[in-house]
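Second opinion, please. Please look over this fold, written as tokens:

===
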Amino acid sequence: MLPAGQAGEGPATPGCSESGDERKTEEEKSEINIAALVGNEQVSEVTDNGDLSSYVSAFIEKEVGNDLKSLKKLDKLIEQMTENKMQLEEQVLTISSEIPKRIQNALKNAEESKQFLNQFLDQETHLVSSINSHLLTAQPWMEDLGAKISQIEEIERHLAYLKWISQIEELSDNIQQYLMTNNVPEASSTLVSMAELDIKLQESSCTHLLGFMRATVKFWHKILKDRLTSDFEEILAQLHWPFIAPPQSQTVGLSRPASAPEIYSNLETLFCQLLKLQTSDELLTKPKQLPEKYSLPASSSVILPIQIMLTPLQKRFRYHFRGNRQTNVISKPEWYLTQVLMWIGNHTQFLDEKIQPILDKAGSSANAMLEFSRGLMMLVLEKLAADIPCLLYDDNLFCHLVDEVLLFERELHSVHGYPGTFANCMHILSEETCFQRWLTVERKFALQKMDSMLSSEAAWISQYKDITDVDEMKVPDCAETFMTLLLVITDRYKNLPTASRKLQFLELQKDLVDDFRIRLTQVMKEETRASLGFRYCAILNAVNYISTVLADWADNVFFLQLQQAALEVFAENNTLSKLQLGQLASMESSVFDDMINLLERLKHDMLTRQVDHVFREVKDAAKLYRKERWLSLPSQSEQAVMSLSSSACPLLLTLRDRLLQLEQQLCFSLFKTFWQMLVEKLDIHIYQEIILANHFNEGGAAQLQFDMTRNLFPLFSHYCKRPENYFKHVKEACIILNLNIGSALLLKDVLQSASEQPPATAALNEIGIYKLAPQDVEILLNLRTNWPNTGK
């Protein structure tokens, strides 16, 4: 059938759409897209079925269907299909003709690029050849030019060398002319310029020039220094320098008022001129330095005028305290230390009032008093460095030397304001051999002191026992002496220059604390049988006092600084865990924590032993009270006046006597801890062994409440405002046992019927029960015997 055959070609041609415009648009967007020719629904079917025959059948069915009249559309469909086929063929032919043209163009471009590249390569070859030829031609010129440049540079260096020599000679000639005309100030200023040139030349490799410069500076410096020094010493002699006598007689040389202004004017002039020589003096003179083992801090030399002023004192010091002089006694370090302090004190007023203004006027930052003290301190350090090796192994002499040095240092810093950052005697004592010996001697004498203080007859007696306000801690003499010993050790080492040395002393202190704790423990064990005795209580007071003082020291700035230093050392050596390092860094722990924990443990053990002892006595005294006939006691209405149960008297008397005894023997904080620990045990004992072990009628419950609230509790009213709050079990048990019948029945009913905890708890809270659980309250209610016969 022809229509069917034509229809069979339908899948290769564009399909029909709703309108001609839409079909044209679709054809323009797609070059070869068969699926788009038959609409969205047909494309979906072709994609789903993938069967051309099925697609054609479906297309015929849709366009023609069962209606024979629809066959009229076949011509139109065939025409559309033919048109679409022709369009597609045209598109294919167009594309087929364009592709070869593009390929040809690409090949043409590539060929052109290749030609350009070959041209560039030819040019490059030509240029390389030209350059090489030029270099060969220019090589002789280059060599000649290099030789000329080298000659020029050599001449320039010679010229610069000659200029430096000329400049040096010019300055030298100027100084000579100034000295010939007696113009010393200008000569000094010119020498300063020459010294500055010397400093600039330090990086030069011209050794001969440097040597010539240094020799010239040295030549003129010596001439000027000698000349000025001679004049300066004459002026000082007129002022009766040095002042050996006390400050009150320092104006002897100025008894003629007319000469004083001229002398001080000359003093200022010469002092300033000498001060100008400081730069050259530092270049030529190296300050005396002690061996490196002493680790002295770096410092500049003492200014030249002060050096000259120190010269007569240095001569005196070396004369008296060196050699075979009678004043040079190794066992008397206080002689030369005191002499230096006297010299500093004698000259302080003159230096502050006369010399310091000159320095300020000259624009110098130096401090006259400090420079003077530095110069004298070097004499002391040299003397100590020479003497210490001679007495290192004589404990008494060495200890005496250390004591005198520490006293000297204290006065030097506190009275004369000598800075701790400058070289001082503590640097000498910090030298390794000397320092280890110091630690050994310190430990030895501390242990001897501990032996003597513990063996003393007054070791366990407080010095302030008769003074109530002072004796709050009830500290025995041995404990106070020991802490004073530790405090003195702290004062002795706190000015050491390095943190590592301080930490070693801190370890010594901690060892001494631990040793003293062990000794206290040994004495305590001897007194264990008399745990309420005077000596046992004194030991307990001592332990508490030491622990308290160490806790206070832990917040001291000095020990906090040591804690930071220890943290850095531990971090470097990895000797602590991260947790411990964190606690130290955050200040949660202190350097004394280990010692405090051991002391607190000992204190707790001793208190526990005392509490147990008293509790046993009280428990024995309460046996009769426990067996009281609580079921048959008369009710409150049957008695005219309520009175204490006779069986409770031994209990209360024992308790009272022990409380009074320990209140007198223990310090306040310890006694507070003691009675609170005792009350806790007593509350549980009375509740469990007396109340829960008996049944109570109305009279028995009232009597128990009277004994507790009117007699037992008041025993502790002297130590707290509301003692009943420490007897929570007993207090609340008394409340339950003394409830009136109605309230008790209601409470019992609530406890039995309450399916949840909150209602029962609320009911108990209303009557003042907070400690006891509902189950405990039910047990107590069952201990009552005064229930009505018809009640539950």
Q: What stands out?
A: Residues 73-180 form the longest helix (108 residues). DSSP finds 29 helices and no strands in the chain. The chain has a mean pLDDT of 86. The CA atoms of residues 611 and 678 lie 6 Å apart.
